[in-house]
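hey so u asked for the seq, here:
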Amino acid sequence: MTSATAREQHTQAVARLRSSYAAIPAGAPVRLAKGTSNLFRPRSAGAGAGLDVSGLTGVLAVDPEARTADVQGMCTYEDLVAVTLAHGLAPLVVPQLRTITLGGAVTGLGIESTSFRNGLPHESVLEMDVLTGAGELVTARPGPTGEHGQHADLFDAFPNSYGSLGYATRLRIELAPVPSYVRLRHVRVAPHLLVDTIESIVRTRQHDGARVDGLDGVAFAPDEVYLTLATWQEEPGPTSDYTGRDIYYRSVRQRPSDLLTTEDYFWRWDTDWFWCSAAFGAQHPVVRRLWPRRWRRSDVYHRLVGLDRRYGVVDRLDRRAGRPERERVIQDVEVPVERLPEFLAWFDRAVGMRPVWLCPLVARRRWPAYPLEPGATYVNVGFWGTVHVGPEAGEAPVNRAVEEKVHELGGHKSLYSEAFYDRETFDRLYAGEHLAEVKRTYDPDDRLTSLYDKVVRRR
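ran it, structure tokens below
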């Protein structure tokens, strides 16, 4: 397909999107009609018809010399990476699940092992076309308002707004050269050395004299923590395949070193949804042999979770077995690196869920709705599972305790999952007044659901 043809089809797709938006009655909820989701927030029952995003799922163009790509908002990273790798390039940050969309990672948040040097996905966006609540299509760019900074207020407020300010239809992003292979070192770190080790790698971008291009880790237990150090390389060699019987997260504690193709490195966590595929029996050797390879994907597991929520299968089994009611604790939080040991110690006492994912990040600039301090090192702590808490599970005591502790430590919590803040606290943490001001500019009739209503009130 030629670039001209792709852009003509894009124009038609945007027209369909705007037409479907105009057809939604005033006062009716607005949502995207998309086949996949990486959100863990229940939607209200009366969500209504979704916006037509058909034709907004591809890559419009790649400029290898400028190292940029024009990408449609509903394009998944799986499809985006497949195109850019053909040019020896990749987005600066590739979130770890295949069906996260570029638009979703920007209006929400994404993170991965290159975040310690490249920040978050929205920080490599150069410009974006946004369908606003007023039904208009505007091009938002960073910088002062003017010829080269149109709608900078929308550009700055868009990350972590989760569709409350509009929907990105096209984004121009930075790309970076990537090699054919990634060499991994799984280094066990004594807990009392964890902070110093992370800070040293972030500062020097090396460890034991070897370059570090990607950095994340797994805490299997309070005294068993591994950092995985990734180094880009062109030299070939025998590679591992974790889309088959082998399971990646287990290799972290079993193998001191490894070699993956770059594509397999990007999706190393997806096959088993980190370690969550165990909940479906997919890690059992017999089940794994029978489970079709094409179904060993995070989006398949996510749909199974949706079915369980709809029919309450696990809850019924727990009641039959006499087990206490479960609370789903599915969160990603950012904690200042120096407070990480304190958070993990509290987490073991209050939650007791292991393993947890660790991913250092350094923000490139300050963003209103997710105000990490630029240049400071944070560590994303990801934990996904359930905790038996008893009849109070519906009140989400563990999730509420996590929220309180994270912000006591000067951290921030991603909003892709359930949140329980009161309005005053939420507005203080996520720039509520500022977002409301931007929303009044671009959504004067208040057609789009506000961020608080969407993530806390679940509207």
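The chain has three domains: 3-46+53-178+437-455, 181-269, 312-420. Residues 312-420 form a domain with the Alpha-Beta Plaits fold (CATH 3.30.70.2520).
lmk if thats what u needed
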